## 1
Amino acid sequence: MRSVGIICEYNPFHNGHARQLRLAREAVGEDCALVCLMSGNYVQRGAPAIFPKLLRAEAALRCGADLVLELPLTAALSSAEGFAAGGVRILSALGCGRLCFGMESEDSNLIMSTAKANLDPAFDALLRAELESGCSYPAARQRVLERLAGADAHVGPPSILQNPNDILAVEYCKAILRQNSPMRPLPIRRTGSYHADALDPEAPSASALRAVLEGCPDASAWFAAVPSCLHDLYESAPIHSWQAGERAVLAVLRSLPDAAFERLPFGSEGLWSKFMKNCRRCASTKEIVEATKSKRYTRARIQRMLLCAFLGLRTEDLASPAPYARILGFNEVGRTLLRDMKSRFPLVNAGERPARSAYFELECRAANLYALFSEAGPRAGGEEEAQRVIRLSNG
């Protein structure tokens, strides 16, 4: 059976995501299977997911996905490069023939050529030189591309790496090339603005949706931006936010020893020390981020660093590929697909306890802490072990 992989977060699932699933199936054929590898209870920007992972998995299944797997936490909280590499590694191993992703650029060929330029040894040397001048990684990469674009007409313009979906698209293509993956890119152009403040029902930005959710307790205020088949799912869904769990985060950060800060991901070049001092003196997580970020170290990097500190994730944790991926949900097509996939890559059901796995302990700790971000108040622990796979009929 032909399968298309999608690396996603669905935070939350909206009409734009439904459009991508529909167009992916139209491009490959109605008989293909759509496999979504979705971040769990934490997302790549360094925050708790607004809705729990099983609810988001069910939303995807109701709207066209056939199988939803969990992107391991260690990949979900990595940089864009690590996020893409972790997803490509798993979907390639599972035998997906295509990787579908969104992009803002109208020219998919420039996405691949830019990815190739990023993998050129000359790119690395130029990038190191720019970083040593003190600029941030995004700015350094921008300058290098400007130089390469001037020398090679086949290299995409620097503007390709200014838009979030294009940045991830390049990283997906880099991962495919670097891993020598047999998957072929299936780009779909995203409509609307990724950072739009106003809620566009047909092509909503996730940030606009989250803003409405966090500012208005009436769920119907944003129902125009999500498929109607999800209204009952979202209506009473528990909302999670950083603000709801901030005191718990601050308590952990203020009690961490120096050695724990030193082993944090993203803390190289002494950044961990500056971050540690701010964690011990600042009165809010926002203040910590503002006091630590700089021209070179972006807000997103500090936010991920902060979340890793709270969850107890070390540099070596993010560097080690997870030993398995979790099955969150499937329909009848997905169930058929799993029979073959389980022989290709270790897959574990939601709630299942693997034998002698340190990664499982990490999952449980992360789930127990996620329950503290509920706006309705902290929930009891033990949620990870109590999870059950969602099974939907194709009808």
## 2
Amino acid sequence: MANIHLENVTKHFGRVTALQSINLEIHHGEFFCVLGPPGAGKTTLLRLIVGLEKPDEGNIYIDGERVNEVHPRDRDIAMIFQNLALYPDKTVFDNIAFPLRERKMPPEQIRTKVTQVARTLHIEHLLERKPGKLSGGERQRVAIARALVRTPRAYLMDEPLANLDALLRLEMRIELKRLQEDLHETLVYVTSDQVEAMSMADRIAVIYKGVLQQCDTPDNVYNLPANRLVATIVGSPPMNFLACKVQRTNGQLNLVHSGFGFQVVGADHPLWDCLCRALPTVQEVLVGVRPEDIKLYPDQPTHLIAFPARVAVTEPLGAETIVDVQLGRDIIKVITPPTEYFSEKQDVWVAFDMAKVHVMDAQTGARIYTTGAPGQLQCMLPGVCT
């Protein structure tokens, strides 16, 4: 196992900054995911760790040893690329055995290790075949086996499931998670698929345009996103954002939207303190609510406060339905059960789960506050604060 530490790592390619002042600590035996859209700098991060690129600034440490100038061969880290790079003219056995033969290992030892790894990945019956005769999932297992057989200090994977179909990706996600738990090895996994990151990782580092946005557990990244970018990258559909003006009148602090309003309850409330300190610099905030934290009602509910809205479009997906709703001047997405039917242009009532409302700075996108309890923000019907 390996502990990997990146300290203020920056990498430029000409005028393009691929990574900017990255600080990360990847722990021994951790399944660590690096998540971000294409072009975020994820692959560059892996190439820096394995030694295929050198940082322009900062330091990289493996088990406390600075490795900026250490050759990739001497870092003892296995990397699995997206294109797999199997030798088409060699059998599965020879592909897996290749790194061992490069080390001049005795043939009997090679056969024992290859057979053992093949058995772990359930591909022992494929050892005499060539890659051209394998399915996508089988080729993926061969590439993983070739990395495992070396017994390196850590494994780096660069979107290894990107070229597989949906069912194979699901199967391989389960297989990779099981494998990592069995081996107890450090695994750094790069992906642009937030489902992969959320389902497999012990921790997730979210990167956007070369800047680390947040590094935390999947639960915290989802429920306590550091900023608007993280809340957009993690979640499908992404979080809804509603621009609200901040108004302070007659000792009351209000967040006003064209379709609803919130009153911040109590001068001792943390959100009150945050907003008051930010005024008059912050004149607008974003109220963020995830689609699954919104409830639609065909009639005005009597047991809670809801806001009038209108259905724009419905997207039936089988297990759930995504309903696009016009709320004031904004369109928001709501996830509803397939048993609830709403038609286009139907008048509805929208209710937020008040324990899961986020407030973010409209200028920087940084999260100012997450309510966390139903009573911390008080809803107001449209027009009350205007």
## 3
Amino acid sequence: MLHSIKTEQHGPLGEPMAHAVQTCVHCGFCLAACPTYSELAQEMDTPRGRIVLMKEVLEGTLPASAAAIHIDRCLGCLACEPACPSGVPYRDLISPYRAQVQEQLPRPLLHRLRRWLAAKTIPFPNRFRLALRGAAIGRLFRPLVPSSLRAMLDLAPAQVPPAVVLAAVYPAKGERRARVALLAGCAQQVLEPDINVATIDVLTRNGVEVLVPTGQGCCGGLAWHTGDMAAAREFARRNLDAFPADVDAIVTNAAGCGSAMHEYHLILRGTADEARAEKFRHRVIDVSVFLARLGLSEAPAGWTEPRPIAYHDACHLANAQNVRTQPRDLLRSIPGVEVREIANPHLCCGSAGSYNLDQPEIAGSLGEKKAQAVIATGADIVATGNIGCMTQVGTHLKRLGVNVRVRHTMQVLRDAYR
């Protein structure tokens, strides 16, 4: 099937892309798992269909512009990977492909402006904070704003939490059991800085010394998933330089960030930093997995009355990192907590980085369905492990007029200790 793809023509990413395409046997098991297929019911909006399109573009038999509408609709949620009996590494195809063809696509001016605004603000906390404050003014003139830019205004929170300045080192409380470096994130520092505060509180309470490297920056996920290879590499190299080697782990508390850092070997493939990136990615671990392996040295007090908590699987935690049981186990370790499952947990909430800006209709439909599924659990708290999911689900719960709190797993655990 792939003999006509000349991998050398597609640079260092040609081989992993070709392997991903070749592995697909077109069985169709991915269809039921794909959120866009559930929304659009079109073959070309499935992983199987997109693989065919990308193959033809890579072979030179189809212009990239002809496939763009369907490739752009892909959330990159990777729900297709655990559903695939052939083990197609779809992640090795979708982001590298976007990076490969991005320059070939004629984008409308407003599309390019939206992407540029997102790229120049979201990865930089100070700029992002200012942009969100500006959005409050922009909403006053919403009818005058072009429709393709209104999603940016609609998703901006009405209030921005006060900034939290993190120290470089947080000593372990009691006997030191481990030493880690924490990725502080970019959007998360602005939208919900308490997640980092809660994470540090839980880790130090359990005997973990936490370093917050001052030279770190954005994980590069936003750039990587939108095909901006140059920016993704710049962010990756910055973090390779910033994080120390003498720690037990590099801890993340945002699913999308952890997933992106696990792909640094792809982002930097064919460069002088590839070997360094390969070693680095194996040191990256989600905080829930780290705590589950280490074990809680101090049991949370919890609540005297039963407290039902719904758990939402962030796609880049469940699908990209295969992290499902650890957050649930941590929640169940809290006295009084009953973890309730959400229907169709494999379906993405529609956040997916900047997807809810680029594809607001599909993202909006997925977000509303996820919010309704949360409501159906009867829980008054929904926990998850990704700031994008928290923002998306929280927005749609609010639109439905329902008072369900959206919390990070670490926030729930921290509150249970208190």
